[in-house]
User: What shape does this take?
Amino acid sequence: MKIVHVASEMFPYVKTGGLADAVGALAGVLADRGHEVSVFLPGYRAVLDHKDAAAAGRRLPLKIEMGDMFVSGDVRAFSPRKNLTIYLVCREEYFDRRGLYGNGERDFEDNHHRYIFFVKGVVETLRLLGLQADVVHAHDWQAALLPVMLRYAERRHGATLALQTVFTIHNIAFQGIFPMGSFPRTNLPMDLLGIDGLEYYGQVSMMKGGILFADRVTTVSPRYAKEIQTPEFGCGLEGVVATRLEDLSGLLNGIDPAVWNPSTDALLPAQYGADNLAGKATCRGELIRQHKLKKDLNGPIFGMVCRLAEQKGIDLLLANADFFAANMCRLVVLGSGEKRFEKALADLVAAAPGLVSLSTRLDEGMSHLIEAGADFFIMPSLFEPCGLNQMYSQAYGTVPLVSRVGGLADTVIDADENPANGTGLVFPPTAEGLRNGLERALKLYRDPTRLATVRRNGMTRDFSWSGAAKAYETLYQDAL
Assistant: This one.
């Protein structure tokens, strides 16, 4: 099949979270399975600076209609592996910035213009190059207008650009909601601005457009597909989701064993596997050294790698801040986000030096070291569409502590509920639930034989993208 992915992030070129990992891994596996895969990304500064982009071919000039004006740009392409081509939709005014979506304090005020231009650039490139895709697969709000814009362009030009469109909701909480005044930039018919179109409480919702107009809609775990049908998790779009239930699927993400495999991970000071954990002890020691943690303690090390946002349960962690000093346990947090959380965690570090460490930089190598060197990995998310770190943790023999939500509940087997097959600890998404999980983790850590069983159970599970890719292939074939 000819498959086109459209997303705002893709590992290893640009990443702020799991979206990049999912797009990069899925595209790569589909290419390896013989499909002709193209991925469209915005031409961010970070992508253009990547060594692979140095091989980008000639520029295809673009002239994009944006309301009552035309805006110029260009497309550059390179092929990092067989059957995979990356297309970069470029315009310096929109994408040559330090951040992807904002400056760290707030979102860029012209994000609606940036991603309308991006999607229009994708559609125009499909037309100019005659790629004739079997499936165009858009990811999250930044690409959500693609299904409707693509069909509108087909009618306008009398051409078929794609046989089927798929839209994946990676996180329904981020919907791309903008003022009504942004709609003219889409150049879509005014009849799409009603309640049955893009209008959302007097504003424009890009994600609503993706849900309504794609041929198939997916989420990134079976449980999350059910959760977004409820007011608790649907974030106001549960009624829109309800109109597409026949076309909605929950397909679990996977992890890329070429990147996340402790037996081959070049970012670690030592490699290890399920049958020999000696290297994990080396990684643990390096984690202690780099974060200046106290060495001679009998308690475990807890790790956490995430955006510092309310969704990730940071409030629940802070509500249990006394746990670590009281039990002489160490905590390593890697992530940045809301300033109130950064400050609260920095205060916790100051109050418990040598026990708690915080790093707010983007550091891919450190995220690997935390997964390998920690004993437990904390994910107390209030909601989690899929989550990847709980899968990384199991692969690395680091027991995950997760909330019973979304993909976390789909991928972690509670060791107390199922002693024979347990791979982690699952709890309700509350402060009390996390406290119970932390206390159960201490009990598990003090039982080396049982801990070894839980670790081995996790390390021998198959979370690779091969199974996930087959599910997407089936979805595409059914759609076609």
